[in-house]
Recover the amino acids of this structure.
């Protein structure tokens, strides 16, 4: 069985062969010369990686399912990119940092507990099923958190903010569940 995959879909979901496009706002323009990935907040020393530095990090391939809060699931997707744990090798969170706010283009954010992000199947993806991500799916970089609903898998990620206390991100402020576990149907507050 593939990492993150189960032999059934979560309750209330249906399987699709498509990968629908859902996001708030427009698709940002990508300039590799200006793009940077920032790690800040409750860390010993902030880190900033250029696009070239980020793309030079070791890569992984993870096969995992993707579950959208709108009730569709895409099964067995092959994601390629940089493991979250690889990025963690470049930062020293301060004692007590237990949460991470993901910051993306256009002001989008989503909060995830650090222990969830440390799962072996969480990665910053730039390829899906053998092809570079399309801009509408998050190119040049999207987080993939297979064990949570898709809004936690933020598109166009530009940074990580380590936090001592949890605070809601974009959709969580608008009534979406903070945990987002599809197997528990944690869709809304």
């Amino acid at each position: 069985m593939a990492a993150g995959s189960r032999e059934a879909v979560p309750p209330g979901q249906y399987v699709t062969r498509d990968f629908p496009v859902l996001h708030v706002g427009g698709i940002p323009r990508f300039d590799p010369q200006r793009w940077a990935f920032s790690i800040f907040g409750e860390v010993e020393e902030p880190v900033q990686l250029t696009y070239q530095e980020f793309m030079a990090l070791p890569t992984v391939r993870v096969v995992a399912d993707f579950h959208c809060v709108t009730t569709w699931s895409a099964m067995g997707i092959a994601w390629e990119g940089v493991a979250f744990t690889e990025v963690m090798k470049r930062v020293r969170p301060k004692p007590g940092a237990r949460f991470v706010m993901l910051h993306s283009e256009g002001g989008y954010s989503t909060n995830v507990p650090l222990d969830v992000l440390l799962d072996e199947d969480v990665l910053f993806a730039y390829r899906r099923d053998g092809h570079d991500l399309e801009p509408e799916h998050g190119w040049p970089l999207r987080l993939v958190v297979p064990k949570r609903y898709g809004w936690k898998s933020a598109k166009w990620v530009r940074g990580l903010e380590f936090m001592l206390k949890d605070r809601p991100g974009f959709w969580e402020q608008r009534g979406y569940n903070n945990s987002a576990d599809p197997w528990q149907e944690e869709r809304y507050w």
